[in-house]
Amino acid sequence: MKRIEISVPDLNDSFSRVVLDGVQYLIRFSWNDTAKRWSFGLFTMQKKPIAQGIRIVPRFPLNLQIVDGVFPSGVFGVYTDLESVGRNDFVSGKVVFAYISANQGATV
Question: Which pTM does this prediction carry?
Fold first, then answer.
């Protein structure tokens, strides 16, 4: 199982370019300080939303309920032993955000 680790910047809201299954996307990470939780979204390179506001929770396939031909067919997930993901957990290395291609045949 090969996972693609995706860096989450030390920002409350950010866009980064990622290549998943040979296609370029923009991924947006957002920290909600009121709810104390992270979410992410996936966009085309022209910033057209594909999926937004996906809550980031540990040890669960984050895009399990998204069935869309535009969305990558792999699985997004968070690797950690923590029960929840805090504001600084990505930067500290306690949490890893990753993508596993459907071609790999694995889940988070």
Answer: 0.89
